[in-house]
């Protein structure tokens, strides 16, 4: 569980990010390439970019394992989130931060060898930090630049919804609606998280950063002394299958029925409440509820009550049925 502790001053100092952050999207897209979750949303992108990944990306994956801790300095605070500003902030990383993050990598991943070049990085030698920044720029150009208009459009759409929620219910309404797992009770925001982690804002405020390639739980920095940022996944709406995938969708509909097939595919796009499911699938609420019960009994989804809402998540069996294949290994190499 992630617990973020607010004061009244922190509520006044919350900010919405101005748009997508290039280096957060670099980091999170590298996770998507090496992990199976979110195949329905990211599968086509992964197939497209894998042959394009530059050799220098190994420097990034050395610092950002597919699970667990990634070096905090890879996603520095900056004013705009543009690639240029983010890279400039990255290149200004103090040597003390580099050394602390490299040590933390070894501590958090004791069975994973830390490449020798990271010692040069920790010592500020051999232009290692500049080479990391260049690797990030090359990866962005090769793997993200072509889809950046889509990333920006969807992140901007999420920010517009948050601004509307802010106007209607203030920051408490925004915080409570950030994520299906969000539980807001002043002075603490609780969120599902891979480990127990507390951030005491102590008047510093909080940046809310939506991310296209974030999946599942929100993410943040390990070091609570860094500028507080909460990076959270945007909800990806269900879209009809592309032409080359239409036959698989038709086969799924023939097996499950058109409505039930659509419900399963919507849940495959991302965990959602019954109300969100009804909205995304354009179904009456009772129909959505009935279909989830059938899918749950078949082992294709799981459902969990959180307060007044029930949230639905696809299972590995459901993923395999939607994709027509089992998901790729979690740590598939780039």
Write the layout of secondary structure elements.
Blueprint: E1 2-5, H1 8-12, E2 14-16, H2 22-34, H3 39-49, H4 58-63, H5 83-91, H6 95-108, H7 117-122, H8 128-144, H9 148-176, E3 183-185, E4 188-191, E5 197-200, E6 206-211, E7 229-233, H10 246-256, H11 258-269, E8 272-273, H12 274-281, H13 285-297, E9 301-306, E10 309-314, H14 316-323
Parallel strand pairs: 1-5, 2-6, 6-7
Antiparallel strand pairs: 1-4, 3-4, 8-10, 9-10
Helix pairs in contact: 2-8, 5-8, 10-11, 11-13, 12-13
Structure, briefly:
It contains 14 helices and 10 strands. The chain has helices at 8-12, 22-34, 39-49, 58-63, 83-91, 95-108, 117-122, 128-144, 148-176, 246-256, 258-269, 274-281, 285-297, 316-323, and strands at residues 2-5, 14-16, 183-185, 188-191, 197-200, 206-211, 229-233, 272-273, 301-306, 309-314. It starts with a strand and ends in an 11-residue tail after the last helix.
Descriptive keywords:
single chain, 334 residues, alpha/beta, four-stranded mixed β-sheet, three-stranded parallel β-sheet, disordered C terminus
Report the C-alpha radius of gyration, rounded: 20 Å
Largest sheet, described in full?
Answer: 4 strands, mixed
Distance between the termini: 30 Å
Stretches with pLDDT under 50, minimum 5 residues: 240-244, 326-333
Described by the principal axes of the CA atoms, the overall outline is globular
Question: Which strand order do you get reading across the main beta sheet?
Answer: 3-4-1-5
**How many helix segments?**
14
**DSSP, total strands:** 10
Classify the helix fraction into a percent range.
40-55%
SSE succession: EHEHHHHHHHHEEEEEHHEHHEEH
SS class:
alpha/beta
Strand content: 5-15%
Mean pLDDT: 90
């Amino acid at each position: 569980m992630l617990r973020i502790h607010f004061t009244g001053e922190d509520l006044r100092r919350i900010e919405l990010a101005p748009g997508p952050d290039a280096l957060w999207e670099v980091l999170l897209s590298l996770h998507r390439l090496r992990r199976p979750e979110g195949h329905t949303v990211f599968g086509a992108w992964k197939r497209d970019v894998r042959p394009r990944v530059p050799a220098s990306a190994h420097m990034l994956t050395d610092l950002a394992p597919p699970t667990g801790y990634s070096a905090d300095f890879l996603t520095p605070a900056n004013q705009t989130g543009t690639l240029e500003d983010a890279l400039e902030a990255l290149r200004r990383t103090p040597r003390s931060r580099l050394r602390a993050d490299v040590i933390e990598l070894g501590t958090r991943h004791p069975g994973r060898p830390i490449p020798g070049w990271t010692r040069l990085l920790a010592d500020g030698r051999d232009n290692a930090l500049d080479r990391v920044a260049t690797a990030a720029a090359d990866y962005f150009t090769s793997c993200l630049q072509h889809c950046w208009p889509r990333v920006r459009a969807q992140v901007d759409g999420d920010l517009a919804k948050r601004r509307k929620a802010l106007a209607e219910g203030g920051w408490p309404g925004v915080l409570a609606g950030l994520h299906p797992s969000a539980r807001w009770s002043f002075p603490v925001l609780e969120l599902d998280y891979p480990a127990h982690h507390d951030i005491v804002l102590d008047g510093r405020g909080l940046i809310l950063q939506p991310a296209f390639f974030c999946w599942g739980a929100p993410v943040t920095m390990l070091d609570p002394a860094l500028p507080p940022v909460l990076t959270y996944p945007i909800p990806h709406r269900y879209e009809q299958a592309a032409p080359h995938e239409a036959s698989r969708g038709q086969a799924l509909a023939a097996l499950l029925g058109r409505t039930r097939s659509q419900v399963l595919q919507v849940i495959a796009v991302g965990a959602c409440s019954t109300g969100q499911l009804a909205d995304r699938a354009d179904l009456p609420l009772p129909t959505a509820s009935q279909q989830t019960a059938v899918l749950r009994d078949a082992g294709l989804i799981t459902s969990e009550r959180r307060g007044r809402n029930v949230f639905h998540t696809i299972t590995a069996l459901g993923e395999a049925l939607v994709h027509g294949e089992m998901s790729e290994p979690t740590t598939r190499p780039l």
